[in-house]
Structures are given as C-alpha cells and as structure tokens.
C-alpha cells in the first residue's frame, strides 16, 4: 500500500541562522530548542529515508518548519523563502520517488509570496504551499493576503494551513509564568479549529472580493 504523509517538516539550520534572533524569540520559538528533533528536521537524506521505511511511509510531502521567512521583511524575506524552496527542490530531485514539497512563502510580502507560489509549482513541481499560522498577528483571511489566495485559486494550488504559535499578547495574557513550553503548545488545538474554519472562509472571501458579490 502506498502511504503519503503530509505533516512532514524539515529545516535548513544555515538559513534559520540568517533570521534575527530577537524576532525568533519574540514570535515565541525557544532558541536552541531540542537537539534530537532539530537534527531530524535537518536530515533530508539517509536518516529520514530510514525512518520512512521503518514507518511504512512511501512519500513525504515536505514543508519548512518555523521559524521562517514570515519573520523577515522585504527582499530578505523573499530571498530566504526562495532559497528554502530551492534547497528543498534539490532534495526532491535526488529522491523523486520519496519526497515532494509544499512551498515556503514570504508572507510579509503577499505579492512576492504569490509569485513564489507560482514559481514553486510551475518550475519546481511543488504540490502547493504550507502557511504556518498567523503573520504579524493577522490570519490568512486578512485582505492583505488576497494576492496569495487569488493566485492559489488560479493555480488550483492546495494551501495547507498549519497551526502555529499564538501572538505574543495571547501568550502573555494566558500563559505567562507557567512552566515549560505551555504557552507555545497548549493553544495549538485552538489554532487547528480556527484555521479549519478559515480554510473555507478565506476562499469565499477572496472570491467575493474578486467578483464583487457578497459572501
């Protein structure tokens, strides 16, 4: 039986190190995180393939784990996303029967993100895109992201909405002072429910704005 896994993340440590440390901390990511999982995320070779074989997974659709280009403004963010996608494409080219990809988008630059989505699908052969939660405290149904949704609809591109860390204000209000990473991970079930409803809302809002018809 052919098994395709979608929730399969990777990271490129050299690219993540280009992101401002303060921006990473402010977004709520623990700096340094966990050595074991971090090493697994960075492995796009034999170790990952061995784990796939042991778990009976035929294909992984890979997507970039945070922190990522959504923390970086302007051309730097666009370049970071592009390089992330190019490096993923190289790994897919080396293992075309085992790996596929979701594009990583520079969400702070929606027009450029739309262009990168199209490039990733048309030139790199990706399956769609993954968007990790909120960008600058805005959900995907904010009007600023209409260019991305419009292009995704044009390309018939799947957009995987992945729950992520809550905004800083939410973390402080609900979880400040609690031990461990409670403030990072406990809100994710809420994020799953919210993003699931947004999946339908975003597409309908985008279509309504483009046609001038009410939702």
List keywords for this structure.
5-stranded parallel beta sheet, TIM Barrel, single chain, 215 residues
Topology (SSEs and partners):
Layout: E1 4-10, H1 13-16, H2 21-27, H3 35-42, H4 46-55, E2 59-64, H5 74-94, E3 99-103, H6 110-122, E4 128-132, H7 146-155, E5 159-162, H8 168-175, H9 182-185, H10 188-211
Parallel strand pairs: 1-2, 2-3, 3-4, 4-5
Sheet having the most strands: 5 strands, parallel
Which stretches of 5+ consecutive residues score pLDDT under 50?
199-211
**Mean pLDDT, nearest integer?**
83
Secondary-structure element sequence?
Answer: EHHHHEHEHEHEHHH
At CATH's second level, what is the architecture? Answer: Alpha-Beta Barrel
CATH class: Alpha Beta
Instruction: Let me know the CATH homologous superfamily.
Output: Metal-dependent hydrolases
Radius of gyration from the alpha-carbon trace, in angstroms: 17 Å
Number of strands: 5
Helix content: 40-55%
**Total helical segments:** 10
Tell me what the structure shows:
This protein is of the alpha/beta class. The chain has one domain (4-211): TIM Barrel (Alpha-Beta Barrel). 51% of the residues lie in helices and 13% in strands. It contains ten helices and five strands; from the N terminus they run βααααβαβαβαβααα. The protein has a five-stranded parallel beta sheet with strand order 1-2-3-4-5. It is globular, with a radius of gyration of 17 Å.
């Amino acid at each position: 039986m052919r098994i395709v896994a979608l929730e399969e993340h990777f990271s490129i440590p050299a690219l993540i190190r280009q992101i401002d440390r303060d921006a990473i901390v402010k977004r709520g990511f623990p700096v340094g995180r966990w050595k074991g999982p971090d090493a697994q995320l960075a492995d796009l070779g034999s170790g990952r393939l061995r784990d796939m074989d042991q778990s009976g997974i035929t294909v992984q659709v890979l997507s970039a784990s945070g922190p990522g280009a959504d923390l970086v403004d302007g051309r730097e963010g666009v370049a970071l996303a592009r390089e992330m996608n190019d490096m993923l494409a190289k790994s897919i080219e080396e293992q075309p029967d085992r790996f596929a990809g979701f594009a990583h988008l520079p969400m702070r630059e929606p027009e450029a993100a739309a262009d990168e989505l199209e490039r990733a699908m048309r030139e790199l052969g990706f399956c769609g895109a993954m968007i990790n939660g909120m960008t600058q405290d805005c959900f995907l149904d904010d009007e600023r992201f209409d260019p991305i949704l419009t292009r995704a609809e044009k390309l018939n591109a799947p957009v995987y909405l992945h729950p992520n860390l809550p905004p800083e204000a939410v973390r402080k209000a609900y979880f400040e002072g609690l031990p461990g990473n409670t403030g990072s991970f406990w809100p994710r079930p809420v994020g799953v429910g919210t993003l699931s409803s947004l999946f339908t809302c975003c597409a309908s809002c985008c279509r309504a704005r483009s046609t001038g018809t009410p939702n």
